[in-house]
């Protein structure tokens, strides 16, 4: 998959910061204004739009998108319904009503709310990876846009780096270096910061999860081989002792 990742942008310019960059074969990362670039959306077959920013802003910016064209998702670790104004609450309800059914079908009802939030960022990261993997498996020709207000903040970088880690099986440092090469304008993630620590936790958790899955698959393969061997032994017995002989005995 590493061959599919393209490093096209090496200089951080004003124009660069206003454009979305290609992160992988189907995934793009950029700022809010990418939503208004209709030619970009059409050319890259963007059908999944994931905003990683406060929900009241995301729901407002995506209010004119329709579920027959897009599946829209908001990732907001700081979501608090009590902070919303009446107008913001109405926007959120409309957002959920429109886009949650698409997300439920996409994830086989493993995720049932288009506002992805949790007090535990690691759980949100895992749900985000689940969504990205479901898109790759079920709709591989569709484009995905990950966006925040300016496309450069640490929260967007955290989720983007997690996706790169999961896709390329690399460590957090390599994932961040790759993202920086794609979009040089991103804000630095300071060592020891909350974002850096969450990224390291994800690296450890994701490796452990994949190792557990690999061990489970190996166990299934071994059991399958044993079952085939047992079946062969049984067939050999049947050949050596015809049914008529067994009945008479």
UniProtKB/TrEMBL annotation:
This is Uncharacterized protein. GO terms for biological process: negative regulation of SCF-dependent proteasomal ubiquitin-dependent catabolic process; regulation of ERK1 and ERK2 cascade. One of its GO terms (molecular function) is F-box domain binding. InterPro entries: Prot-tyrosine_phosphatase-like (IPR029021), STYX-Interacting_Phosphatase (IPR052449). Signal peptide: none annotated. It comes from the Eukaryota. One of its GO terms (cellular component) is nucleoplasm. It comes from Wickerhamomyces pijperi (Yeast).
